[in-house]
Amino acid sequence: MSDLLRVENLGISFGGLRAVNQVGFSVKPGEILSVIGPNGAGKTTLFNMISGIYMPGDGRVVLNGDDVTGMRPDLLARRGLSRTFQNLQIFQNMTVLDNAIAGYHLTESGSLLADLFRLPGARARVRAAREGAMALLARVGLDRAAETEAGSLSYGKLKRLEIARALALDPKVLLLDEPAAGCNAVETEEIDQMIAEVARSGVAILLVEHDMKMVMRISSHIVVLDHGEKIAEGDPATVSRDPQVISAYLGTEAAEAADA
Ligand SMILES: Nc1ncnc2c1ncn2[C@@H]1O[C@H](COP(=O)(O)OP(=O)(O)OP(=O)(O)O)[C@@H](O)[C@H]1O
Fold it and tell me: Record's Pfam families (predicted)?
């Protein structure tokens, strides 16, 4: 199967700091690739380059065979690459359903204006977005909370809502930045299962996550960064036993998680 996302020799500097240097990897449909590494290793910077927030200093991002290096996030989203952020980007005082509907507005140019002026087709589009949003909420187990104000949801449910919104654009590639951060063990497992289900539907998933048990459980493939460099790559069992990875980052915790 061909790569959905290929990252080639990606690099960026901030002043004198080489935050990411010559990093490359690829992800196929249905794969979950996790990027791990100590604080400041360059994981979020790498995500920001792939998702069009930072223009890479060097290298290329290839999405479905097309060079999309430095393309704006909204255009990338239309081409099938969506992301979530480390910090929740939920509208706390809107309902869960309206938050999910907000995910659709990127795909329909001019739809907000059309809705305001009640242009022909607007009502049908609003109805379609509503139905789509309800289906998404069912997919992440939040359909019964559709009319609840988002601010009153548990943290784990907010994280799931954020993933639902990223799925509104029907992405081929989904970037998840710390989807389990701040979640308890039960919430983390729920998110785990959801991510695995999304991958099974053929989406290529790129994950940054500090929860090593989760990473070892769900990743098909792991890339390890340290000081902006890729120091290892492979399946969870291989990476967790790599001496360089253990001394840079993992200690014995990951090896134990991989054995569990
Ligand atoms: N906009 C920026 N300007 C200057 N330096 C930056 C910027 N963004 C990131 N950095 C620096 O680049 C390096 C990599 O940071 P990054 O946030 O990508 O690491 P990370 O692996 O995501 O860390 P964490 O696990 O703590 O989220 C750090 O030294 C950071 O201080």
Answer: ABC_tran, BCA_ABC_TP_C
